[in-house]
Amino acid sequence: MTHNRFRIPLLVLVSLLPMGVSAQTVITFAPQVVGGLSSWTGDTRSSAPLFQTPYFSTLAGIKLSIWGLTGDTNLAVALGIGYDARGTGSYGQPNDFHQEYRLNYVDMDLSLRYRWLEAGVAFGLPRDGHLNLNISDPNPHLTEFSDAEMNKTFGIFAAANVAILKWLGGNLNAIARLDYVTTDVLTTRSNFIYTTEQSPDPLFMFTGGKGPIFMARLGLSYDFTFRILRSTP
After folding, report:
1. Which residues contact 163 (CB under 8 A, 6 or more apart)?
2. In the chain, where are the structural domains located?
3. Distance of CA 27 to CAs 81, 148, 172, 207, Å?
4. Which of 30, 126, 134, 217 could form a disulfide with 140 if both were Cys (CB 3.0 to 4.6 A apart)?
């Protein structure tokens, strides 16, 4: 079941909650949204050379950060969850070939934060997606993907969270985030053969959806702050 996939990151975070809870412990709850570009960094096997093309990618979600668990109020453990819409693709010659992927995930990340710097791991649980495939044709061929045809993904990320404005008791932050997804995004069934009614023989063959993927995104978040007043004996 889907909730079981979240078990390990949640247990890691929850297990830390009783540790060192003191008057210095602060919890921030931050809605956030980032957008930018994503692109393959690996090879796509095909019958002709392909060139990677970056496409727009967005991530919208919330992040819970707990500061001061170790006594250092500059250090936090954080858990984020959101909806990640990734776009990427390739183009090539001959035949003016273009492919564009749109792949959607529930994203969960677990990270450590030190002041404005953040680093961690991210897990992508597939939802759905599609491929637009076009070879010298004004009408692209659309292939839909179910979650069964998409792999769960794993990646690492780093982010900078810089406060730019204090507003209504919280902080409005600018975010710069880099992600590197290390796993293939589609299953081994992702083999495509392009034909037309006029030419039933294959015009182009490729295996798509291979990783890794690199994403660079900018955005905003707003921190709601809660202080834990109970101190440990």
Report:
1. 116, 171, 172, 173, 223
2. 36-60+79-109+116-225
3. 16, 37, 16, 45
4. 134
> Taking the CB of residue 73, how many other CB atoms lie within 10 A of it?
14
Average pLDDT, the chain: 78
What is the pLDDT at residue 55?
87
The neighbour count for residue 214, using CB atoms within 10 Å, is 19
CA 232 to chain centre: 37
pTM: 0.78
Longest dimension (CA), the chain: 80
Check whether 230 has a pLDDT greater than 60: no
Q: Among all chains, which residue has been given the structure tokens 């450590």?
A: 112
Measured CA to CA, the distance from residue 101 to residue 123 in angstroms comes to 19
Phi, psi for residue 200 in degrees, rounded to 5:
-70, -20
Place of tokens 């060192």: 20
